[in-house]
Amino acid sequence: MAAPTAESEELLAELQQQITASEQQDSQSPLLISLYNHLGEAYAKQYDYPAALECYEQAYTWLKPSDPSLEKQMLS
């Protein structure tokens, strides 16, 4: 696993704050899909694949009930 840089740690913290704020404002917000996906990408860039996978799974969980057409695109 790559050592996280100050910039990447800042990005992770910012994304996690945005997720928390979005969940508090609207627990069904479609924005959560994007935020969890971006958080997964940030973890993947650090080679933290277990954390990235958790985020991608969370994004998929939010995606699944909201829009079946997007789910099909995501899986292809």
Automatic annotation (TrEMBL):
<feature type="repeat" description="TPR">
    <location>
        <begin position="33"/>
        <end position="66"/>
    </location>
</feature>
<protein>
    <submittedName>
        <fullName>Tetratricopeptide repeat protein</fullName>
    </submittedName>
</protein>
<dbReference type="InterPro" id="IPR011990">
    <property type="entry name" value="TPR-like_helical_dom_sf"/>
</dbReference>
<keyword id="KW-0802">TPR repeat</keyword>
<dbReference type="InterPro" id="IPR019734">
    <property type="entry name" value="TPR_rpt"/>
</dbReference>
